Amino acid sequence: MAQIIRCTLTPRTTPAGWALTIAGALLLAALDVLLSDSFLYPWNRALGIAALLSAVTLSALLARARRALAAGLFAVLAFGAMWQIASPWMARRSVLAHTDAESPAIERHFIVGYRDIASARDVVREGHVGGLFLTQRNMAGRTGEHVAAEIAELQAIRRAAGLPALIVAADQEGGPVSHLSPPLPPPPALSTLTLFPPQQRQTAARQLGAEVGSQLRSIGVTMDLAPVCDLKPATAPGLLDRETRIQTRAISADPAAAATIAAGFSAGLLEAGITPTAKHFPGLARVSTDTHLFNASLAAKEIDLTASDWIPFRAVLALPGSALMLSHVALEAVDPGVPVSRSEPVVAQLLRRQWQFDGLIITDDLTMGAVEHAGLCRAVEGALNAGVDLLLVSWDTDKTYPAMRCALEALAAGRLDPAALRRSERRLNRLAQMAPAHTPSAPTP
Description:
alpha/beta; TIM Barrel; 2 domains; two-stranded antiparallel ribbon; 12 strands; 50% helix; globular; disordered N terminus; disordered C terminus
């Protein structure tokens, strides 16, 4: 930045000076665009403030040097950075101000991450969420007993307010994605169960699912965002695949083996009172793009997917009580260019009508790049109208309230399908009736 300032403040701007100025502007614009991406979490706030201060400083110095065009450019960037910082705060005020009877019915569709118990109380007490998402930041430096006490307190707040019990979700897949370990014991990757003889795999997977489920119940978790039902890709993750890395998480490249183990693990979770979640439909084995950062599509024919990739998903969904997670990949054979997380043809026609699946459907994280690029409100509104039951905002808490505001504004404007919402409410109520089986006794830390 110092070099940019020196170049732009010379009496006659040189080509190099203009190049550096434009480069600085583009850098700040990129930061502004990426501030809310999960790729930058948890540094997005610091980057936002840095972008704002840099843009304001450069705009003032350029204006003083009578470089009006460049000064105006950085002023615009400063305004963008300021909006990124202020928008979550304004959305929070807007959401918490909704006290009408219809708002909780919409807000219960959201499963949200939280930084600390204080921030969780705000949304839990007034019924502004349907559930919470636990991850590493909630577990760091803490015992299982402390986490269990925290969840028990939040559930007690819900009971006192006469609200449905919270869904408490987590990523405890086993292997590299075991976000509650420590303090919970780290489960082995489900792929290790392929080392068992075929006739022993289902039993071993069921035992593992029951063990993991019991551990999850002990701290108050009610939904495991597992198993991974994507088939194992033939190639290693690409250079830009920083987060998905399905090859390291998938069970097997063999659909039958993956189905046996995924269904066995899910059955064990259900025995322990935990909702299993088959993910990431329609399957990422043939997708090389990381949707945490970019848009992605799956070009395979439906007949080919039915014969291979979808076998593990169908095996898990055949178990009553199982849920399904939708990725942000577009299924070109059914709804070209539209992520399945908000695709009515995929959700309402393929899954609900053709597959006859009437269980819960949840989106992948709405803070991912594939959602950001198309617009958060578009993703929220589309998912609810498609018949998705739960919308996950797992990491970036600054996106929780903007996502809820999108839903409330769509409701007020009459853009949400009442019939789809009624059907979803029925499914959520069915899960809520099972809440006693999910509620552990509150431990003392």
